[in-house]
Sequence to fold (193 residues):
Amino acid sequence: MTAVTGRAAPVLRRDAVRNYERILAAAREVFGEAGAAACMEDIAARAGVGVGTVYRRFASKDALIDELLRLAMDELTAAAARALERPGGYGLHELLHALGCSFAEHARYAGLLLERTPDPAATRRIQAAIRELTGRAAAAGTIGPGVSTADVMTLVSALRGLAQADAERAARGWERFLRIHLAGLSAGMPPEG
Fold:
């Protein structure tokens, strides 16, 4: 059911689903190569479909970018839900790994996604998961007791910044970056002074 009409959402034909997936894959490539200068015609050609097929599904380039952001946020909220189901104190590690994967996967066109405002409800769910998982990790001893949610959010921002600043380095080094910082979080906060 759709929230607007109260009717069931239409079921797409198999070829429509296949075209949708091809368009998204092509858009990721073309946006990664050309950024904001990418055009729908190039995306259509890369997808192997007519430009009319692209415009029937996405009214504009902005609509296509919005869909890429929505899909990325859907993946992250699902990862947050899985991490919350994990027993013990390692759900935080799992979610941070999922965030790093997402940032690296979308690094080549991250600037386009970061210009947009993600779904506020999805953002709140992810932030709430980070708060909950940080508390669980501290209670289980998988991070130091002095590590705060703000510390973890700083790590998330650093991961995102790494991906945005250098897509090539992010693809190769984000996991090492995360492992080093998780080791630091496990050791706890150094004494102030």
The CA atoms of residues 80 and 129 lie 6 Å apart. The chain has nine helices and no strands. The radius of gyration is 19 Å. Confidence is low (pLDDT under 50) at residues 1-5.
